[in-house]
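Quick look at the format.
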Amino acid sequence: MTIGFFVVVGAMFLLLTIQFGSCWQAILILSIIPFGFIGAILGHIVMGIELTLFSIFGIVALAGVVVNDSIVLVDFINRRVADGLPIHEAIVDGGRRRFRAVLLTSVTTVAGMLPILLERSKEAQVVSPMATSLAFGLTLSTVLVLVLAPVMYLITARLSGGQEVAVD
């Protein structure tokens, strides 16, 4: 499964590079995934649950949701820059206007996992590690998508020679 995960991440990198026309933006989007892993591990520690195969399934699902959230934000910022906004204004506008979409995606997913997280029956204990990985990882990574992705966008724009940004 580890090999498959890295193959899929590589494929996502290629597709994102083609879609956005920039390997920097593909790296930016994919760089949020490890923070989701950290949230998943912390969730297992908090819940007192050992990592299982189902935990790994949850982490793989988490990677998809985190990438989706990042794409929503980065794509909107790109469109605002293409419309002629300075990068700094496009980032602020993107964060403000896509905040609800990113937050609702995460909140509804975590809310959907709550019944499984709170259930204590033997049957639920099988899938509880998956729900723990997804819910806790998504909680941490959502905050980081909303904060870290815009900051990294600004940094990558500066490194790749994008338009000069006036910092207030």
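Next, a different chain entirely:
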Amino acid sequence: MKLYKLLCFSFLIATLTSCTFTENVYINDNGTGKFSVDMDGSPIMEMAGDQIAGQMGDNKKDIDTTFTFKEVFQEKKDSIAKLSPETQKELKKLESYVVSTKISSEKKEFLMNMSTDFKNVNELQDILQTLGTLQKLEGGKNPMGSGFGDNGSKLSYTFDGKKFTRKAVVDQQKKAAKAQDAEGDMSKMMFASSSYIVKYHFPKKIKKVSNPSALFSDDRKSITIQYSFTDYMENPDKLDCDVEFEK
């Protein structure tokens, strides 16, 4: 199965059923770190694993593979060359991501992980929104479902050793337009039972967190914030937080 076809197939599974999205951010003292997003769509494998296996082609019932977005874009280089400079710039943000996919009809398992290293938290963006740019590779046909990841916000991160901030600035005009969009209603129905979890791991103990939903780890160096995926789409600023550290 070609990489782009596999990627689209994997996202299609994610959009068809309740899926758990888990975002992990690991930050070092110097501000470098690792970012990853895990998607677990195993529930659909429980319901229709054999049928899905038949759609994978190549007579494969199991897939366990790792690739990079750079490899995917190499497959689609002719299509990418026809896109606007702005869209090409958005896609380039994904090049460093490593994608690992495990699909097993026998184990009723669908797991996907996307990860990358960063030199500064300022480099981080909303990965699900950036993934939405992939629809432009097929002339506007979105392999991940209409509206996937597009919550009408601009996400930013900052870290100076004393304080960490995650802030989503919501575009109210986009939010209002999406509320009137029938396709947006369909996306809301599809993701109603999905969850979005963010986990932040720091090199220092945490003094306090602004988000009231944050749960501390035992060593107080990590926090977890969980919401429904519907909240992530409709109220992305609910996941905002300011984290201050002990001296």
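The longest strand covers residues 109-118.

See the schema section for token definitions.
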